[in-house]
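Batch manifest, entry 17 of 40.
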Amino acid sequence: MNVYLDNAATTRIDPRVLKAMMPYLSEKYGNASSIHALGQDNNLILEQTRAAIAGLLKAETSGLLFTSGASEANNYILRGIMSANKAKGKHLVVSAIEHPSVLQTARELSRAGYELDIAPVDADGRVDLKALKKIVREDTALVSVMAVNNEIGTIQDLEAIAQIAHAKGAYFHSDIVQAIPYLRLDLKKMGIDACSLSAHKFYGPKGIGASYVRPGIKINNLISGGEQENGRRAGTYNLAGIVGMGTALELAYKERSVYLKDVKLLRDYLWKSLKKEIPEIKLNGGLKYRSANNLNIRFGRIEGEAILMDLSLRGIYVSTGSACSAHNLKSSSVLSAIGLADYDLNCNIRFTLGRFNNKKEIDYTVKNLKKTVARLRAFSPVK
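Output type: structure tokens
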């Protein structure tokens, strides 16, 4: 049996999404920027999809721009807003548990002459709002805090963070990649000035994402050399991907209630079973402010990579953290930020469930994980 429990890294494309995409990979292949009929027909589909996605996010259509994914969108927003708003200030604030595409970009901006502050989080991974209020200044141009953490599933108080940013005249950006469909998103109501998303996190295709920047906010381009997106982002439109993302987002919210109920039941069943069968395990972060599909578990006295590899041989696919840093065996900055001791930083496995998982797979996982842990602990040098 193969069991895929790494849905925070990527999800399997929904067959209905693939079906919606197929015409734009075959007979409807025209470039949406071309002025002939085939191109203009596709441009109409492009703009209809843009409007539909913006509507689902409660955002202004003209602010939505298509990208290759959320990493590009994060780079575009951080670099673009900071460079275009130097008159406001050169101070940038991000949280300690951001995705690498935000944290590394922020550090590169710092090396380029911008001033960076990292907002701390509590043991659950939630931003310390009192500390954030002290950090945000009159010359802060942008505050960036992800909606739902990719490693431990922490859900942030986005409205409160937005209010703190806006009180000092700063813009608020949120990476919402892991929030769909776990949060009902209303960008205007929540005070989110800019956001980033990626289709492959919610059963859509890889290689397509979007950025939203509220109209009126000054932002410089990241990719130049073409007139697509009203000159804001050069590159031929990935129309099949865009249609797939629109379809996936529509399905995600149309089926949200049933999905959340099912995935949470499975997640809670997995946690209950693991606690019963395997000693010396702890949950990283709390359950109260956590996305319904996420468990990040610390296994005492064993390396997480050893567990991952052993499970992989048994057909069970999990993660030790962010997929974007899977080839880098440095300790997780997220787990360090929530207060784990150094000796616990590499003992963790992330389980992220999804639409295609079932109880039989969970039972198979627990049975095999129990064997894996017992075997690895038997020759662990730490007793």
